Amino acid sequence: MSLVYWSPTEGFCWARTAERQTSQLRTRYLQAVLRQEVGFFDTIHGASITSQVVSAISTDTLVIQGVLSEKIPNFITNLAIFITAKMTALYLCWRLAVIAIPALVMLIIPGLVYGKLLAVVGEKIQEAYAIVGGIAEQALSSIRTVYSNVGEEQTVKNFSAALGPTLKHGTKQGLLKGMAIGSIGVTYAIWALQGWYGSILVTEKGVKGGDAFTAGVCIVNGGL
C-alpha cells in the first residue's frame, strides 16, 4: 500500500518542481534576450533571432524539464538499486561478487561512451533544426515578398538543403542507439562467468546454490 501511495506522490513532486523551475527559466531567458543591445541581434548567424529564442524557450526548456522530472529521479533510483544490489550480493556470496562485479565494467563503459556521443549528436541535430526553422519562419513571415519575386523554388531548395545535415545526424543517432542497445548483450557473458564460477563454489566450496543464484541476479540487475 505504501508503494501505491508514495510512487505517484514522488512523481507528482518531481514533475511539479520541474515545471516551476522551467517556467522561471523561460521568463528569465526572455528577459535576458530583451535586455540586449541592438548590436547583439546583428551578430546572430544562421537562424533568425526569433527562431532561436522560440527554439530555446520551447525545446531547450523541455529538455531541462525532462531532466528534472525524469532523469534525476531515475538516476537516484538506479544508484540506490546499484548500491543495494551489490551489498546484497556481497552478503550472500562474496566470492562470486568479487569475481563478477569487476566484469560489469564491460557493461558500464559502452553505456557511458554511447551516452556521450548521443549527447553530441543531439546538439548538432538541434542546431540543424534551428536553421531549418529559421528558413521556414523567414519565408512565411515574408510570404508576399517571396511570392512577388517568384522565390518559391529557391526557398524550397534552401529548406531541403538545410534538412540534409539533420538526415545525416539522425542516421548517426539511430546507429549509436542501436549499438548502445546491442551492448546489453554483454550481460550474457557476465551470466556465463557467474554460472561457471558459481558452479565451482557450489560443488567445491559448499556455497548454497540459492545464495549463489540470488547474488548473480543482484549483480546483473544492479549493473543494468
Give your account of this protein's structure.
The protein is an all-alpha fold. It has helices at residues 2-34, 38-42, 49-92, 94-100, 105-141, 143-148, 152-182, 186-204, 209-223. Helix 1 (2-34) runs antiparallel to helix 3 (49-92), helix 4 runs antiparallel to helix 8 and helix 4 (94-100) runs parallel beside helix 9. It is elongated and about 90 Å long. 14% of the residues are buried. Residues 12-224 form the ABC transmembrane type-1 domain.
Q: Average pLDDT across residues? A: 78
The beta-strand count equals 0
Radius of gyration: 26 Å
Overall geometry comes to elongated
Distance between the termini: 27 Å
Share in helix: over 70%
Strand content: under 5%
Q: Helical element count?
A: 9
Family: Belongs to the ABC transporter superfamily. ABCB family. Multidrug resistance exporter (TC 3.A.1.201) subfamily.
InterPro entries: ABC1_TM_dom, ABC1_TM_sf
Organism: Ilex paraguariensis
Keywords: Glycoprotein, Membrane, Repeat, Transmembrane, Transmembrane helix, Transport
Could you write a compact summary of the structure shown?
This protein is mainly α. Helices cover 88% and strands 0% of the residues.
